[in-house]
């Protein structure tokens, strides 16, 4: 079977959550799939080292599309050039790992779409106007056009059925995975005095309550709060909370911006505690990356998080800065608790190896190849 992949996110300037998802998955598929041919479409390569790992397999072909635009406007404007290339390549299945794809794919090409979460329906107040317009007015097209669906947790599958009316028989759950070698725990290295947060700065990540919680304990601990992630949207409440803090507390809150690769792995394994009291997650890769790195995690018992991480993490009420503060202070001052969570987290992370994820995708691709070209869509 010939499989096309939209790899825009993979070769963007900063490899974010979706980019890492595609990078790890395609790299591992290139190691194990000896039967299918992959055509990877991109506007260009920014990170040659990533491409080399994937295209070492001759069954993986890179297609750099001249003039292929960046951002969501490419959905329309890149379509003629991409459609011509897809027809030339004879694609059987288009894999949309980032939830959307060019609108004028040939009708003969079947589509498998991964929907990572349905936060725009579950928490509409937490998304940007641009995203709201896209998801509410255009995303129904992508759902209708898709023949098969993947998602990353049973929670997300249930939300897809509830909010999007997708036939649950067309949804396959494949948990995310990471390359554990990229997140080695620290060896003979003391943890440093900082609490780590990793995620895009957006309302559902609940940074406002995390900073309120940190402010309550900042004077009683030596640790700083390190915030890693790209700028997001609807962050005026976050700025207001920070502006209202005493200077002594502001100095202990460090905004690092985007950090990736080995630098991010170092931050994970050196942190004393990882905290992400998110209000909605489909899977939450940063939690898994922190656990694999040997760092204890404090999070929220919300959406998919308890399904995926169980008792290998500590939970706090995300709506209560007092509870988040209490749990943070309790953990960073209790080495025994930290050590137990580190052990549990490291053990659980082995369950979510990218090798398992890629094997499950490959099994699904081969199952799709054996099916007649029927359309999926809604109930």
Any key phrases for this structure?
single chain; 379 residues; alpha/beta; Rossmann fold; 2 domains; seven-stranded parallel beta sheet; six-stranded parallel beta sheet; 16 helices; 15% strand; globular
Topology (elements, then pairings):
Blueprint: E1 2-6, H1 17-32, E2 37-42, H2 48-54, E3 60-64, H3 74-77, H4 79-89, E4 93-96, E5 110-114, H5 119-122, H6 129-145, E6 148-151, H7 154-164, E7 171-173, E8 194-198, H8 207-217, E9 224-228, H9 236-243, H10 247-250, E10 253-257, H11 261-270, E11 273-276, H12 285-292, E12 297-300, H13 305-309, E13 314-316, H14 321-332, H15 335-349, H16 354-369
Parallel strand pairs: 1-2, 1-4, 2-3, 4-5, 5-6, 6-7, 8-9, 8-11, 9-10, 11-12, 12-13
Helix pairs in contact: 1-16, 8-9, 8-14, 12-15
Helix content: 40-55%
Q: Bin the strand percentage.
A: 15-25%
Order of helices and strands: EHEHEHHEEHHEHEEHEHHEHEHEHEHHH
- Write down the domain tally: 2
**Rg (CA only):** 21 Å
How would you briefly describe this protein structure?
The chain is α/β, with parallel strands linked by helices and 379 residues long. Helix content is 42%, strand content 15%.
Written description of the protein model:
This protein is of the alpha/beta class and 379 residues long. The protein has 2 domains: 2-177 and 354-369, Glycogen Phosphorylase B (Rossmann fold, 3-Layer(aba) Sandwich), CATH 3.40.50; 180-351, Rossmann fold (3-Layer(aba) Sandwich). It contains 16 helices and 13 strands. The strands form 2 sheets. It has a 7-stranded parallel sheet with strand order 3-2-1-4-5-6-7, with helices on both faces. Helix 1 (17-32) crosses helix 16, helix 8 (207-217) packs parallel to helix 9 and helix 8 (207-217) packs across helix 14. The two termini are 27 Å apart. Residues 374-379 have low confidence and may be disordered.
């Amino acid at each position: 079977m010939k499989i096309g992949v939209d790899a825009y996110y993979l070769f963007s300037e900063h490899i974010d959550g979706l980019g890492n998802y595609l990078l790890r998955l395609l790299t591992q598929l290139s190691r194990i799939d000896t039967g299918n041919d992959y055509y990877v479409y991109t506007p260009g390569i920014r990170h040659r080292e990533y491409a080399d790992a994937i295209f070492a397999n001759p069954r993986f072909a890179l297609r750099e599309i001249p003039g292929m635009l960046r951002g969501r406007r490419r959905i329309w404007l890149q379509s003629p050039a991409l459609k011509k290339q897809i027809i030339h390549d004879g694609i059987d299945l288009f894999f949309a790992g980032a939830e959307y794809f060019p609108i004028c794919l040939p009708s003969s090409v079947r589509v498998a779409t991964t929907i990572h979460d349905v936060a725009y329906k579950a928490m509409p107040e937490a998304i940007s106007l641009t995203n709201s317009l896209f998801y509410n007015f255009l995303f129904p097209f992508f759902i209708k056009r898709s023949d098969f669906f993947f998602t990353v947790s049973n929670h997300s599958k249930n939300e897809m059925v509830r909010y999007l009316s997708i036939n649950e028989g067309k949804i396959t759950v494949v948990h995310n995975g990471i390359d554990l070698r990229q997140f080695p725990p620290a060896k003979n290295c003391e943890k440093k005095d900082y609490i780590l947060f990793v995620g895009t700065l957006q309302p559902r990540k609940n940074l406002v309550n995390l900073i309120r919680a940190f402010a309550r304990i900042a004077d009683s601990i030596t640790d700083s709060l390190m915030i890693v992630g790209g700028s997001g949207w609807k962050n005026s409440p976050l700025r207001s909370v920070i502006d209202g803090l005493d200077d002594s507390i502001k100095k202990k809150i460090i905004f690092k911006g985007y950090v990736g690769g080995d630098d991010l792995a170092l931050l994970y394994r050196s942190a004393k505690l990882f905290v992400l009291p998110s209000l909605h997650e489909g899977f939450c890769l940063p939690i898994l990356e922190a656990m694999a790195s040997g760092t204890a995690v404090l999070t929220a018992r919300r959406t998919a998080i308890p399904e995926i991480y169980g008792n290998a993490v500590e939970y706090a009420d995300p709506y209560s800065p007092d509870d988040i503060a209490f749990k943070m202070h309790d953990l960073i001052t209790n080495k025994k608790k930290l050590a137990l969570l580190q052990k549990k987290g490291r053990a659980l992370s082995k369950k979510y190896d990218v090798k398992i994820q890629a094997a499950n995708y490959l099994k699904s691709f081969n199952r799709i190849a054996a099916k007649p070209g029927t359309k999926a869509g809604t109930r």
